[in-house]
Amino acid sequence: MIISRIQLKNWRNFRSVDVPLQRRQFLIGPNASGKSNFLDVFRFLRDIASTEGGGLQKSVKDRGGVSKIRSLAARQKPEISIEIHLADAPGEPPGWRYGIGIEQETRGYRRTLLTYEQVWRGNEQLLNRPDDKDEKDSVRLTQTFLEQINANHNFREIADFFQSVTYLHLVPQLLRFADSIQGRILENDPFGQGFLERIAKTPEKTRRTRLKRIEEALKTVVPLSKQLEFVRDESTGRAHLQTLYTHWRPKAGWQREDQFSDGTLRLIGVLWALLEGKDLLLLEEPELSLNSGITSQLAPLINKMQRTQGRQVLISTHSDALLDESGIDGREVLMLTPNKEGTHVETVSDIEDIKALLDTGFTVGEAALPRTKPSDINRLSTVVG
Ligand SMILES: Nc1ncnc2c1ncn2[C@@H]1O[C@H](COP(=O)(O)OP(=O)(O)OP(=O)(O)O)[C@@H](O)[C@H]1O
Ligand SMILES: [Mg+2]
Known about the structure:
Blueprint: E1 2-11, E2 14-20, E3 24-28, H1 35-49, H2 56-61, H3 66-69, E4 80-87, E5 96-104, E6 112-121, E7 124-129, H4 132-136, H5 156-163, E8 166-168, H6 172-176, H7 195-201, H8 204-221, E9 225-232, E10 239-245, E11 253-256, H9 262-276, E12 281-284, H10 292-309, E13 313-316, H11 320-323, E14 333-337, E15 344-347, H12 352-359, H13 364-367, H14 379-384
Parallel strand pairs: 3-13, 3-14, 8-12, 12-13
Antiparallel strand pairs: 1-2, 1-4, 4-5, 5-6, 6-7, 9-10, 10-11, 14-15
The protein binds adenosine-5'-triphosphate and magnesium ion.
The site of adenosine-5'-triphosphate has 17 residues, from α1 and α3.
């Protein structure tokens, strides 16, 4: 199942968004245009649906409250709403639709309240809140049915889907200095600190198969690396990865992840994430620390892996190298353009002059990315120079 369409109202720097999503979807736009905020919608839904300490109240509180989430560009204080279509494939009619609206209680505890919660399976509406009970007891509106196991039984599939959303923005330093920060891992592990433990928890056979595939990929991109292995340190009990490097000495040497380069760690992280699950994966700027030659292989690699896994991947990026790939279709790229009324989101193949360039054989990197550069960028060096 994939998310085939998303509609947003008043979510952070977006006033209004309505776009289809493909199985592989790139998000481009200047700094602070809202790429990470866009990805955060899916993390928000995951947090609400999460059975381990999730729920609406906490998910909003973790983000600083309704007033931080509601678009500053919005006049008065309208509701924030999210609507998601789920389908088996892009462009297909949605098998499911889920929507919620939220606002803040005007008095008292100033809790987050649902303005509505709706679920559709095909054309049949399964849930339409507020219902009679909600009208009589408004405290019920502090919780979604999505987060309640007793209430979501006839749309559990949606709750399970949201729960299994993965976000990866692996920060090599946090992995490398795990001992010094004494294993303090952020909830849901957005920065990949628990990455090694995730590998450790994977059944051995699956782990071996995945590491073998990653080892093959590494051999082609990291000179001198020969072998990649998982080990558990007997004295500390900690999980580690090690690679065997060939070098001038007759005996090759093993190195653990604290000695891997940033690019090696990030590449292993991205590849593992691609192999790991079957539901939505959110990748933040996978190009970071990678050589442009490797970055240019990411789009075809994701495509290839999707043929076996079917996993939907949303990727924020600033990279020419990543998007300079003829296999990327204009529908697979969303362009975020900030303006006073909030950031505008468009599929690049719907922008006429970009489409014309794509039709004559330009890559997305050539046709669309230059648009995301600030118009007075040359000023940057003069103002600080
Ligand atoms: N409630 C809100 N209303 C309006 N704007 C908001 C709101 N919350 C956050 N923003 C703005 O969103 C911007 C940050 O967006 P985000 O981090 O998603 O950008 P990005 O495209 O990922 O940028 P980068 O490429 O630098 O990572 C900030 O400028 C911030 O002011
Ligand atoms: Mg960002």
